[in-house]
Amino acid sequence: MLQTWRQACLKVFDRHQKYLPQSCRSQSWRAFTYSAPCMALQKTVSTMEDYPCEVIRNFSIIAHIDHGKSTLADRLLELTRTINKRVKGVNAQVLDKLKVERERGITVKAQTASMFHDKGDTRYLLNLIDTPGHVDFSWEVARSLAACQGALLLVDASQGVQAQSISVYHVAKSKGLTIIPVLNKIDLPAAQPDMVAKQMHATFGIEPADVIKISAKTGKGVEQVLQAIIDRIPPPVGEPLDPLKAFLFDSSYDRYRGVISLMNIQSGVLRKGDKIASCFTRKKYEVTELGIMHPEEVSTDCLRPGQVGFVACSMKESAEAHIGDTFYRVGHPVDPMPGFKPAKAMVYAGVYPVDSNDFLKLEESIKRLSLTDRSVEVTRETSSALGQGCRLGFLGTLHMDVFRQRLEDEYNADVIITAPTVPYKVLHRNGKDSIVSNPTDFPEPADFASGGRAKGVEEPIVKATIIVPEKYFSAMMELVFENRGTGLEWHALDADGDTSGDGRVLMTATLPLTEIVTDFFDKLKSRSSGFASFDYEDAGYQASDMRKMTFLLNGKPVDALALIVHADNAANIGRRWVDKLFKVIPRQLFEIPIQAAIGGKVLARRTLSAMRADVTAGLYGGHYERKMKHLNNQKESKRKMKRVGQVDLPQEAFFDLLSSK
Ligand SMILES: Nc1nc2c(ncn2[C@@H]2O[C@H](COP(=O)(O)OP(=O)(O)OP(=O)(O)O)[C@@H](O)[C@H]2O)c(=O)[nH]1
């Protein structure tokens, strides 16, 4: 009955949303329509006392990007009747709630869903955490796994083991999780389940007999996955009578209720009205609401050991919700659980409003959005060209792009983002090091000369893994060396030494991070016809010959365009950017030299010719002297303009420049 009602609400919403005002067509309204029937559902799940640890399974789905995590999550939610059976177009990736996730078909935020599953006389409580696949969001994966005892390792049967399959496997293994190997997309004509099962054996040592073969799309084999979750994943451990220990692994922000935390109860029982305190900040709170995600919020009477749910506790500032923090009952302190490494920003960029009067509004929107995306670092900055803005740190360029789109979608912001920069370590002669993530703060060449304040620079490097069919191996090798790669190693990945050229090679190399944040990924895909997969992890810093490149328009440097480049690539990069600027700057009444320079040395130059106003247009007949007089006046005023003139680089030109490749 409830499911029919819920489904009817969604159908009505989807069918009639075109008649709703624009502001009511968003995914959050859709989610509201969807969750409204949950209020009725509360009666069925209102007591969590019936779910001791033995009947709880906490698990995550991990995989390479696009291998089908969200689709499998949909099928599991359907099988357990958490959502209704698929109605065309309705249950597509229910846990991908953000507009950007639906538009791009990727998961960017881990989501939690609790399901009930009856097996024999027992009703199990299964807590699923759907994780993103892209390398930029691997922090979300690591965070989600901290609340689980098991993980479904999903591998696409037509693509085989890919770079991220390997990295997420190792993260899950290092956390001691039980791994259930699942081969997905066996319905595809190109699927080679037996071959991929052998690959999994060769790469992870997984026995082919343990691999479950499914099609998340058609639902084939998904019941077996449910069974394996119950049989193979160990239940959590925790005593209800022990002191309360609640582990905070995610948080979001609600305009009315403040911070909503997702917590995993390790021991003790948490109830509404309880007074709790944070091990990290020692601040005290009162629990005002708690419950489970089903998959929308459903209030419950309590949360018991092993359970995962949301907790609202009048926490006003999202900075108070430290990911990895432990909460305890006031007066009964406990030892904090080991937290996890905070997210480390890999790329930084300046974000400015298109209309500089909108800065305060933009800053507010950035603050609000970063409450739901805790991995973004925010500081204020000012540019003489773009006015006031914020410098943001992201986990990668996809993360940066997703954040920009969310600002536009969810906050209606119009922004300009400067070119991404990685954080460099500048070594000073006084023995102190500083991290510079803004080209404006990077030392000038003169600072490196003897007697200057800086003695060297180190750049961040990563250990990159590429998996590619053998026939693209040499193209990949070239790409690695073009991008200053070193320490290249490789070995055949597939078990039986395939000599047809279809066998795959696993390559590892050390690459400067700055090389991969530009167009490395696009080149990798185009040179391997889309077959290469790529993953990387932080590998520290190495000494490097980096220089600050400035761009001058009409002799004046434009701070927002400054770049930090490697000395070997400087001339090429300078020429490319000068060409880009040449294309986007509108011609003005005077000539504009566009230059790329390092210190005082100009590396590239183009001159944008002046726009010539036809001052003789109104003159008829052959008055040669009058014509010359007009032309001379024009020449003189242009000369003055050039002398006093400031080039106005319109915001749109910046936009074109920074969005062009
Ligand atoms: N043919 C077929 N297609 C599938 C199957 N499972 C998923 N897909 C398709 O594969 C694509 C990616 O599926 P998703 O569920 O979004 O993959 P994901 O792993 O959640 O993606 P990210 O979260 O972005 O990493 C979608 O177009 C799905 O319809 C399957 O079993 N068979």
UniProtKB/TrEMBL annotation:
Subcellular location field: Mitochondrion inner membrane
Catalytic reactions on record: GTP + H2O = GDP + phosphate + H(+)
GO terms classed as biological process: positive regulation of translation; translation
MF term (GO), any: GTPase activity
Residues annotated as binding GTP: 63-70, 130-134, 184-187
Membrane topology according to the record: Peripheral membrane protein
Keywords: GTP-binding, Hydrolase, Membrane, Mitochondrion, Mitochondrion inner membrane, Nucleotide-binding, Protein biosynthesis
Highest taxon listed in the record's lineage: Eukaryota
Any one GO CC term of the record: mitochondrial inner membrane
Record family assignment: Belongs to the TRAFAC class translation factor GTPase superfamily. Classic translation factor GTPase family. LepA subfamily. Belongs to the GTP-binding elongation factor family. LepA subfamily.
Protein role: Promotes mitochondrial protein synthesis. May act as a fidelity factor of the translation reaction, by catalyzing a one-codon backward translocation of tRNAs on improperly translocated ribosomes. Binds to mitochondrial ribosomes in a GTP-dependent manner.
UniProt xrefs under NCBIfam families: lepA, small_GTP
Protein's name according to its UniProt entry: GTP-binding protein lepa
